[in-house]
Every structure is written in C-alpha cells, then in structure tokens.
Amino acid sequence: MNYLILLRHGQSQWNFENRFTGCTDVELTESGISEAEEAGKLIDKLEIHIDRVYTSNLNRAIKTAIIAMKQTKQTHLYKEENLIFEKNEALNERDYGNLVGLNKNETKKKFGADQVHLWRRSFSIRPPDGESLEDVVTRVTPYFQNKINNDILQNKNILISAHGNSLRALFFILGMYDKDKISTVEIPTGKPLLLKFERGKLKDYNYIN
After folding, report:
1. 1-49, pLDDT tens digit by residue?
2. 3-state DSSP call for residue 127?
3. What are 82's strand-pairing partners?
4. Do 157 and 3 contact (CB within 8 A), yes or no?
5. What DSSP letter does each residue of 48-86 carry, written as one string?
6. Strand 193-198 versus strand 82-83 pairing type
7. Does the CA dihedral 2-180-133-13 come out positive or negative?
8. SS3 call for 162
9. Is 17 helix (H, G, I), strand (E, B) or coil?
C-alpha cells in the first residue's frame, strides 16, 4: 500500500475577498497559514514517510506545502531549511481569463447567475479568454502520467499541494468522478485528502481528520 495526499492551499487573500483568482499569485491569509499548519499536523499523525512533494508554480500552493511539512517529521525533505520539491505550472489553478480579480457576487449581478454558473461549473465551457475544467484536465494529464503516476507505480508516497481546479482535474484523471459530477465537487482549503493505492490502483480515499 502506498499513498497520495492531495492538499488544496490554505485560504488566500482573494479567497477571502471572494474573487476569481486563477493564476494570479496572491498570498495566504493568516487563516490560510493556520489551515496549512493544521494540515501538516494531520499529515504528521499518519506517520507516513513522504518520498516526494509536488506543487504548482504559485506561492499559495508552495507556501502551504512548506508550512505543512514543517509541522511534520519529514526532515529528509529539507536542505538548508528549504523544502525539496518539484514545482510545475501544469498544476497551476485554472485561468479564469477576463473574470480574474472580479468579485464573484458582483460578476453574477453583471452577467447573470446562470451564465456565471456555466463558466464556473461546466466541464467544457470556458469563461471569456480563460480555461475550462476540460482544458485543465488536458494540461494536467501528461504531467500526471509522466511524473506523478510513475511515482505511484513505484510505491512512493506523495504530497501534492495545488488548487481547486487542478485537484478536480486529478480527481477526474484518477476516475474518482465523471465529467457530469466533477465540476460540482467542493474541495475545502487546507484539508488533506488521503488516497490509498495498491499495485498502482486507487483503492480508497478519505479526508484526514
């Protein structure tokens, strides 16, 4: 049995302000830092040796991984106090295009709740000049197959610190949800999800309590 831990970054400033964030590099709030610390404590209780950490290129995911791992005994992941991990833009948040920076409630008033719901929750419909969830799946898939899945097949234990939509893409790639349900899945900030694998096959998954 080996494990994959998926962790959405802690609350960011634009999460707090209810804005479309996308690939804008906003910082964690104090609550987000606390969420990352609590995530690390939950991970530490598992007593799982983590072999590799993956994150997006965005600071909120990177800092969440660093803060969380500092709450654990995973000292082998550090060199001169810096976390050793792999960053890649394939795991970045979905690009919301022209919606980036807009308040979600104000956007509903401007474009209508039904239209905003389609932009946010449809699998294949893109917001203006942005990405659909299907687009995110397309960019995450080769990175997963070439890097992360190779680690899973080698029975390694992995932590991925990323974003709501790049994690939804992984849920879809792993067969946890189909395209009709994946867009409705809510992923809480700072709450680690433990996936259990046996011989490369996903067997079970649950949030860590």
Report:
1. 999 999 999 999 999 999 999 999 999 999 999 999 999 999 999 999 9
2. coil
3. 79
4. yes
5. ----EEEE-SSHHHHHHHHHHHTTSS-GGGEETTEE--E
6. unpaired
7. negative
8. strand
9. coil
Could you say which DSSP state residue 208 is in? -
| Catalytic center residues | 9, 93
Query: Would the pLDDT of 119 be above 90?
Result: yes
Task: Using the structure block, give the residue that is written with the tokens 């610190």.
Answer: 161
Q: Please name the residues in contact with 182: beta carbons below 8 A apart, sequence gap of 6 or more.
A: 123, 133, 168, 171, 172
Does the CA dihedral 83-13-31-10 come out positive or negative? Answer: negative
Tell me how many domains the chain contains: 1
> Which residue range is the domain that position 110 belongs to?
2-207
Give me the mean pLDDT over the 150-173 stretch.
98
SS3 state at 207? strand
DSSP letter, residue 88: -
Q: Which residues pair with 197 in a beta bridge?
A: 2, 202
Q: Tokens 């299907």 — which residue?
A: 134
Looking up residue 184, the CATH number of its domain turns out to be 3.40.50.1240
Residue 134 predicted with pLDDT over 90: yes
Tokens (6 digits) for 108: 């509903």
Strand 158-162 to strand 52-55: parallel, antiparallel, or no bridges (unpaired)?
parallel
Q: Output the pTM of the full model.
A: 0.96
Of 104, 34, 98, 95, nearest in space to 63 by CA: 34
Residue entry with tokens 């910082």: 27
